[in-house]
Description:
This protein is of the alpha/beta class. It is built from 7 helices and 14 strands.
Amino acid sequence: xxxxxxxxxxxxxxxxxxxxxxxxxxxxxxxxxxxxxxxxxxxxxxxxxxxxxxxxxxxxxxxxxxxxxxxxxxxxxxxxxxxxxxxxxxxxxxxxxxxxxxxxxxxxxxxxxxxxxxxxxxxxxxxxxxxxxxxxxxxxxxxxxxxxxxxxxxxxxxxxxxxxxxxxxxxxxxxxxxxxxxxxxxxxxxxxxxxxxxxxxxxxxxxxxxxxxxxxxxxxxxxxxxxxxxxxxxxxxxxxxxxxxx
Length: 246
Ligand code: BGC
């Protein structure tokens, strides 16, 4: 089936129509800036504009959203406006678009893309997927099943939370060289390795495209690989998630 997958991020909103059997992009990716302030009204209207005017799409739509989303309701707001907390995002998007839209945490759906079609496919035991962009999102899979909404980017780390120590946005803001940033990331991954003892760690988000720039700084024991679907994991995963809700 074909689903329009939309990845809502702290910086950009990206979408593409995806053939969910194969993960193939059948209608090209479109990106618009996330409105600021990123309020529920502003994001909902940008979302509808992208579906109706950008894609002129009448088929199924599903979204990854950068917050904890429980039963369609937003629980946290880190890189989006605080007024999102307790907003029923699924209902809001569905009403505005006039048909059902499925919404889940962006890292959970991106991880799903890697589970079905990428580096986590067929891996037994615990697998940790991280998406590294404006924030850090996490998804944990055990023998192919998701433990949702884990938010490991918000673990206390070096006196703050982890995503404020080693997200891609931090690398840019502090103008860190890839190697220096890789050391920070390794530090955080070592902590996650200690907590979870995963079989494999998969990195998604913008930083996954530049993996070779910091790979040698990742010295933990657990194998670390970039997402096979690279930074398209969020879009492809949203579409797969939508298809699985039907
Ligand atoms: C949010 C997560 C999200 C991650 C990546 C974090 O700030 O709390 O829910 O998965 O950013 O977008």
